[in-house]
Amino acid sequence: MDLIGCGVFWENGCWSMTFLPIVGRELRIAARLPATYRNRVLTAGVVAAVAFVMLFFASLTGSSSFIGETTFRTLSYLTLGFCLLEGVRKTADCLSGEKREGTLGLLFLTDLKGYDVVFGKLVATSLNSFYGLMAVLPVLALPLLLGGVTPGEYWRVVLALLNILFFSLCAGMCVSSLIRSEEWATGNTALVIAMFAGLPLLTFTRFFYPFSPVYAFHAAFDANYPGASSGYWESLGIGQVWSWMLLVCASLAAPRFWQQKAAGTTMRFLPARNIKASAGIAARRARSRAQALNTNPVLWLAEHERGQHSALYVLVGITACGSAFFFFASGHGYLTVFLGCAWLLNFILKTRMAAQACHCMTEARRNNTLEMLLATPLTVNQIIDGQIQALHRIFFAPVVLILGLEAAGLGLAIAKSFTSTGRSVGDPGGALLLALGYLIVFGLDVGALQYVGMWFGLTSKRESQATMKTIVYVLIAPFVAMVLSVFSIFFSCFGFLAFLIVPICLMIWAKARLEQKFRELAGTRYALRPVDPYARSALSFAPPRLVPPVINQ
Predict the structure, then answer these.
(1) CA of 52: how far to CAs of 58, 139, 143, 534, in Å?
(2) Alpha helical stretches, state H, 203-271
(3) Angle at 419 (CA atoms; ends 415, 424), nearest 5 degrees
(4) How far apart are CA 243 and CA 192, in angstroms?
(5) Rounded distance, CA 467 to CA 460, Å?
(6) Is 330 helix (H, G, I), strand (E, B) or coil?
(7) Pairwise CA distance, residues 187 & 352, whole Å
(8) Cα–Cα distance between 47 and 38 in angstroms, integer?
(9) For residues 74 and 481, is the Cβ–Cβ distance under 8 A?
(10) From CA 369, how far away is CA 379, in angstroms rounded?
(11) What residue spans define the domains of the chain?
(12) Residue 73: Cβ-neighbour burial (10 angstroms; 0-12, 13-18, 19+)
């Protein structure tokens, strides 16, 4: 007899317990959930639709082998992005959410170990991610029928994607076991994944390349594999080592970091100079909050988020160092690298903005601030405007500094190249027009991120889900549309217009929905409903007291 899925059996007159009981319970729960089957069908359908569009339009312009190779690479890179983001989306807040709800400590009152909880939660949160990748693989094999892709290349890419997905999920699990806040857990998970995946590649040293799990994906293609075959297998092995080390760290940290930190603890024995500086900062902050209260009470409530400035000014420093480097090392070969680094830095900045827009609304809904604001004479538009003004106070100065440093670095590099070669690197008028178009797209993205992030923060169960939805809708969807438009001459303009049309439509839609549904959704609670216990997570319950069954004599 199995007691409520906890892996405890009455067998041969004694109790016996299976290995990893929570894993077995979570698998049985997932087998009963319609979402388990619905998500993988939707994933396969979306990828199949993308592949169909690419194959249809590409068939009008190229040979079958070229179409197969291009389609395979495009779908592979899209799947790579899916695998890297799953750790942020699925496991970054799995244990930290249980800490905030106070249910994680109940499990450690039993005989369950840290690895029982970690592996159980890993299976519960990552099962749909694994099913989603499995649903993509048959679609990824379609280019094999067209040529240009060999079976060996296909299976090497599949192994690399599985390895990257496992690493991403383990990174999120490790960070979630150490951090309590959802916002910090999500951000640090993205940082850990970026460091492990990107830093070895940025060293530009072949010896360190295999330490990145992403290098196996790069070396898996036939064009790169002959010269990097040993690095491919080394990267797979090192990726597994990183993943299991992160899981071991999570298993050790989960029983030790589940307690809530004591509130009000401060640093003592500070030097007198630091005490005076802190007093000055507190006085300036008090004056700023008083000014904000006169402007908009919602802006006054959001003033506690000004601590985000420290992280944003780190990006400003990185931009300044990068611009100086590319100025002193400027050349024709560095221009593309400079533009790529600037785009990546701006993408990180916009991602941070999306996370903050979602956080301000999710946090206000969680601590009942929205309900209290609606009981005041403030209107819905005033509440929304207050949140927008708070975002402007946080991001306006860093955004202006970053864009100014990028423009200055690019202009100085072009000027230096012109003076050293005696001729212009390109058309200055075209470069100015391109920069103006980029600023327009950047401004539209910023406006859309504010309203869409607030809308998803108001309607999503978790802050991480709201952030991922905002990034996908506003930042990734136009990029995918542009990639798809490359395969068709007739629709080539659509991809570039998507960067203008999509943010405008999303901004108008989200703003209208906020104004119409704000009062209805402000008091919504996304708690678990009292349904059948099999439909709830095993980590929300402590194992029941073991009582031997009554045997009729």
Answers:
(1) 10, 10, 11, 39
(2) 213-219, 229-253
(3) 65
(4) 12
(5) 9
(6) coil
(7) 8
(8) 14
(9) no
(10) 14
(11) 23-259, 295-522
(12) middle
User: Which pTM does this prediction carry?
Assistant: 0.67
Burial class (CB in 10 A: 0-12, 13-18, 19+), 147: middle
- State how far the Cα of 483 lies from the Cα of 549, in Å rounded to an integer: 63
Three-state DSSP at 17 gives strand
166-185 pLDDT, tens digit each: 999 999 899 888 888 777 78
Distance CA 447, CA 506 (A): 9
The answer to whether 542 and 486 have CB atoms below 8 angstroms apart is no
For residue 550, is pLDDT > 70?
A: no
- Residue 375, amino acid: A
Question: Could you tell me if 307 and 390 are in contact, meaning their C-beta atoms sit under 8 angstroms apart?
Answer: no
In angstroms, the Cα distances linking 318 to 171, 312, 344, 439 are 25, 10, 12, 20
Spatial distance between the Cα atoms of 361 and 462, rounded to a whole number of angstroms? 11
CB 16 within 8 A of CB 8: yes
Mean pLDDT value across residues 28-38: 79
> Please, are residues 448 and 475 in contact by the beta-carbon 8 Å criterion?
no
Average pLDDT over residues 323-342: 65
All residues at 6 or more sequence positions from 422 whose CB lies less than 8 Å from its CB, including other chains: none
How many Cβ atoms are within 10 Å of 83's Cβ, its own excluded?
Answer: 25
Considering only residues 1 and 501, tell me which one the structure prediction assigns the higher pLDDT: 501
- Helix axis angle for 428-459 and 334-366, nearest 10°, is 20
Residue with the two structure tokens 């491919």: 232
Which stretch of DSSP H or E encloses residue 15?
strand 14-17
* Averaged pLDDT, 407-430: 62
